[in-house]
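This section describes the prediction task in plain terms. A model, or a person checking by hand, is given the sequence of a single protein chain and must write out its three-dimensional structure as a string of tokens. No templates, partner chains or ligands are provided. The sample shown here is typical of the held-out split.
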Amino acid sequence: MPTIGTAPVFVARDTELAELVRVASRPPSVAVVEGEPGVGRSRLLEELAAHPVLASRVVWSARCGSFSRPCRLAPLVDALLEKSAVAAAHAAGFSPVTGVLRRLVPEWSPWLPPFPENADAETVRQQEFRAVREVLTGCGPAVLVLDDVHCADDDTWEFLRGLAASPPAALSVVVSAAICGPRRFPPLRETAAHLSLTAFTDVQVRTLLDASFGRCAPDFAEAAHRRTSGIAVDLTALVQSVGDTAEALSVDRLASATVPPIVRSRVSGLMEAIGSAARDVVRAAAVLGSPAGEPELGAVAASAGIDGAITEAVEAGLLRDLGRGRYVSGSPLIAEAVYALLPGPQRCGMHGRAAARLAASAEPFASLIARHARLAGDIAAWTQWTGVAVDNAIEDGRTEEASRLLEAALRDADLPRTARESFAVRLGRELPRSIAHAGTVRLLREILREWPLSKAARGEIRVHLGQVLINQVGKVEAGRLEIELGAADLGRRQALLARGLVTLALPHIGTVPVEENFRWLDEAEQVSKGEHDAGLLAAITANRLSARMQIADPEAWHEIADLPRAPESAEVCRQVARTYINLADAVAWNGHYPVARAYLTTARRLIRDDHQPYLDALADGTELRLDLAMGEWASVAEKARAMLTRVDKDGSLAAEPLLVLGWYEYGQHRPTAALRSFDAAFALSAGSVPVQASAYAGRVAVHQAGKDLQAARRLAGFGLETVRRKNNWVWAAELMPFAVRTMLGLGQHVEARELLAEFRQGIDGKDAPVANASALLCRGMLTQARGETLAAGELLLGAAQAYSALPLPYFAAYADELAAGCFSEAGVRERAVASFTTAETTYAGLGAAVDALRCRRSLRRCDPEMPRRGRKGYGEALSPRELEVARLAAQNLTNREIGERLFLSPRTVEIHVGRALRKLGLPSRTVLTADLLSDIH
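The expected answer:
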């Protein structure tokens, strides 16, 4: 195994090493280790030679050279010279035949017997074999370890064959060789072992990197394995070139790392060692970059009859045999090294032949042909085949690939002027249906600013860019401006203008009142009159229905049944799917969670055979919010983080997974992480008022929990003003309870009552059950503030039941807990116990351990007879030492720092912290706070 990181490590070959140690320690024996170049044969033999079990034996070791004309018995001479002191100490026992070694090892002449006289060359040769064998066995129990014996000279090879056939009683022989080649050891005796090393698997690579750095991201290990194919020597060099700490090992840095000099030198040496025909085959494989058969390799290499060349390249480890007549470069990294060594004219010629070969196939792979044509310098063919590849991608529903191909072509300075405008227009058309990245948006803006375009092309690009800026980037005003500028250029192209206007029609977009959004919708309908574009008409219908549902219009439900169940055209199908996704989003904000699930299922059914990255991301975001709301917390954080890897981290599609993470972290009592997620979600949510309102609610909740009521009040004011300006109070359902409680905490009772009155008026007549539950919760808190605790408890209990019916379990538990407090204050102990019990059970089921613990403590105060948990002696209560340690841990002190204060070992501190957490029912020390421990004595 290689050495990586701060210390040498040897992993993933433990079984092989154990077998070699077993064989080497039980002479007479022979072991052969075979494997492709670079898989770690040499390192395995090094580990064997240094193994403690062999410490009492003489280990003769050397590596066979790869010289074109090696010296006779050169590796054996190197092995003898390395142990000269050992040999000299035993020289008195050597027989006269060892004098023949004077010519091979002149350094030993002072203590070797005389050279034999009058011996012919063949006799000397045979005596040399006998002498080497005698020295190897004459210094005590020994092990001969020779690496790369496939490179050995003929005499060494013959000597080893004889030694393996009949090893001396006190000698073990271990050799390594390339798995392919003309020299293979014959079948060995029963005492022998024959090991075949293969390249590391992705799991072994992860094990190696974890052992080297303490931890390693799985995606980095997977990427490193993919690029090196698990070849140990290349893996070592590549990882070392990326960094020497775990923090430095990122997939991005790995992807940008060039071929390490060690790998380039190794590949160059292997290329020099093979014939010219084999070199051309290896170069052809590197140029093709994908599995290819003999005909393809021969065509690109411009050679015929390359069977022998392929075999030679495989034996050198420069090609891999995939079976069924398919071959590929030994690894992507080897391909990169070979490609870098390829002279420019030869490289262009090979790419040209690759393009011609692929174009002549029965099913030409257009994007691959375009790539080879570009690298060959054939601009006309590259442009033509890029257009074909884009057509194919669009036809197959691969919009992201179409956008990627177009963007790459548009960024190429050699793209002909005749193709620039058409490619730019096509990129604009595809971008709204794919996930737009910041670089692509910048490119379109640069094209509009600097390229000469026709008015029609400029207008169309502007409209599509406006759609993307509004829907995906969150820059509503910038998007609206682009659409308006595009309208001036479009002339009679009313359908396209209508598509732009309808983008502005959904109420959640922008800071203007919802009435303005409906005005844009009316304008889109007016512009589209007389149009027969089914897709456009479906888009207008979709946004009209979605807009009404976003403002919780109870009459909107009747029109949903009129949506087509099996749309005839693909465009109408996409629009209907988008409608259901928008409806799911709207009814989820309104509190109709099971209905939202059903709408998402319908949408996914409609687009299951049509890859729509943007629609998929919209659906995933809504589904995450539903998981969070309905209490499916076990996997919601993992799913949110996974979504963040699929979308542009700086785009509006990242806002919802960040929002979900914020609420999850708030429920886990991780205020710093929660605030970070809420802030990030807010920063990306400029295009969605409900997401902004929810992010405000989360930020208020975090500051409120931290007792920073002034900051909470300030943020609540900003959030409420956002909703007030939008004039859709349904979206304040999450914010209202935290805003009201903050106001009450600051003594602003009149302002809180006025706010609730405004909220209730805003949701009057709306079909928004979550807003109604929120209003009930706020009424309960205001009633409690007036001192009417029993009446407040009834209202809060009603709110809890309303939330449970949605279901919204976390808010239900919150309302139950508040109701229990009111009942307890009113002296209605049984009802207080029942509500605290319900709240504690709900919190515990969600995994909100701190909230559940708080309820258990309240229960004990209400019901002293409540069964207690914990160890005997202290019950659920913490021991004095456990409490002392827990309080220091709550101050974020490490185990070592706590131990220094209390004169305890870090291990003892760890045990006390663990016991305290178990008794408190907390998942980790990160949720320990001074407040949690304040009432424990």
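For orientation: The beta strands are 3-4, 7-8, 29-35, 58-63, 142-147, 171-178, 193-197, 319-323, 326-329.
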